[in-house]
Amino acid sequence: MLEDELSVSTRERDGVAIIDLVGDVTTFAEEKINSAYAQVTSQGARYILMNFRQNDYINSAGIAILIGIVTEVNRNNQKLAVSGLSQHFQKIFRMVGLAQYAEIYQDEDEAVLALSAA
Amino acid sequence: MIIAMNTATLSMELSFPSELGYEKVARDAVAAFARRLGFDRERIEDLKTALGEACINAIEHGNGHVPGLHVAVSCICEGERLTIEVHDKGLNRYQGLGSGAAIDMKLQGLAPLRGMGLMMIAQLVDEAGFTESHDGGNHFRLSLYRRV
Questions:
Q1: In CATH, what number is assigned to the domain containing residue A63?
Q2: Per-residue confidence (pLDDT) for residue B147, from 0 to 100
Q3: How confident is chain A (118 residues) per 10-residue block, as mean pLDDT?
Q4: Which of A27, A47, A86, B132 is the most buried (most CB within 10 A)?
Q5: Which residue is closest to B49 within chain A, CA to CA?
Q6: Does B106 contact chain A (CB < 8 Å)?
Q7: What is the pLDDT of residue B8?
Q8: What is the SS3 assignment for B130?
């Protein structure tokens, strides 16, 4: 009844596969996020940006899903970055150690510029 | 969902079914309460995340996702301290569960991906921990101090 509404979509920009995440990232997000990752990976993505927007709520279950993505990214020799997080969730990502494995950028433009130059 | 507020003693109580998603309602209600008490935006964000994790633990572990079992949240402000208690029915004891394995362990498959809630709470609030329970449930308390 109270399942989160999360919209996940993918697109490509300057050689970077962008996964847009609009809404809450919780346990209910698992299938959508994993499907989006599988889709861009099947299309040969090397650089992946998870672009967060309007995310008032990212909880530990959501973070666990993202750690699972990092595991796959490492296994597939891809590079992962994140953008669009609020200051609070940037702090959370650093707190749990995700920032060691996914560079944090303020916005999509900054992230794409850095990833496409890598 | 039941919410009762007492503005004379600066306290509030709420109760909700053990279904994921209700923790968002609790977060929003307690955030509104903290905002009225003068807590700043950053502290309220910390509180929302910490309380959400405490409520999820109560829903998932303490009440085993049984919707008929309610999670009770009580808030009281005394001086500069806001204390929030989250009570469940204690179907499972989860004190010390997932004490925050490092992400390296998780990535190597040596620890479950989940189980970060208590670690996050401990880092986001000023005081947090389980308190003695006389009814068999899990009682978790977290406190924040207002910055003056």
A1: 3.30.750.24
A2: 75
A3: 81 97 94 98 98 90 95 96 96 95 96 91
A4: A47
A5: A59
A6: yes
A7: 63
A8: strand
Residue at A97 is within a domain: yes
Q: Which CATH homologous superfamily contains domain B2-145? A: Histidine kinase-like ATPase, C-terminal domain (3.30.565.10)
Asked whether residue A1 is assigned to any structural domain, the reply reads no
Q: Which residues of A touch B (CB under 8 A)?
A: 1-4, 24, 26-28, 57, 59-61, 63-65, 67-68, 70-71, 74, 86-88, 92, 95-98, 100-101
Going by C-alpha positions, the residue among A108, A57, A35, A63 that lies closest to residue B25 is: A57
Partners of A47 in the beta sheet?
A16, A79
Report the 10 Å Cβ neighbour count for B96.
8
What pTM, to 2 d.p., does this model score?
0.91
- Return d(Cα A58, Cα B93) in angstroms, integer: 25
Residue of chain A nearest B19, judged by CA positions: A2
CB contact under 8 A, B113 and A88: no
| Angle at which helices B41-57 and B117-124 cross, to 10° | 150
> B25-52, pLDDT tens digit by residue?
999 999 999 999 999 999 999 999 999 9
Percent of chain B residues past pLDDT 90, beyond the cut: 69
